Amino acid sequence: MKVIIALCVLFVGAYCAPVSDDGWTLFKRTYGKQYNSVEEEANRRTVWEANLAKIHNHNLEADLGLHTYTLGMNRFGDMTHEEFKKQMNGFKMSTRTDTSEFDHHTFLAPSNVVLPDAVDWRTKGYVTPIKDQG
Fold first, then answer.
1. pTM score, two decimals?
2. pLDDT at 11 over 60
3. Which of 6, 24, 47, 59 is packed most tightly, with the most Cβ within 10 A?
4. Is 6 domain-assigned?
């Protein structure tokens, strides 16, 4: 039964009307997007439309109870998944940094300081609101 529902959702998504220019313009204005050429903008719009279709299909499936969360457009909407991963998960440790000196050290707690068992950093004002979960 779930397979039939999922297929129906996919077919409905395939027959949806193309995205209007207004949606693309609103996306660019909302997130301050500017592109270097007409070709780049056309490519970014194609990626954005594909991502918008994925969001729409996922949310239809969520309405049917197939997912426990919904998706929405954000500032990464004109990026492919690979581009997003490269930009957001691209930590690369320097190959010049010699970490061998850190491999064998053990932390020794100071004997003249009493530390609490737990600290709630929220009450101390050190936890900031969520900034970007992409």
1. 0.58
2. no
3. 24
4. yes
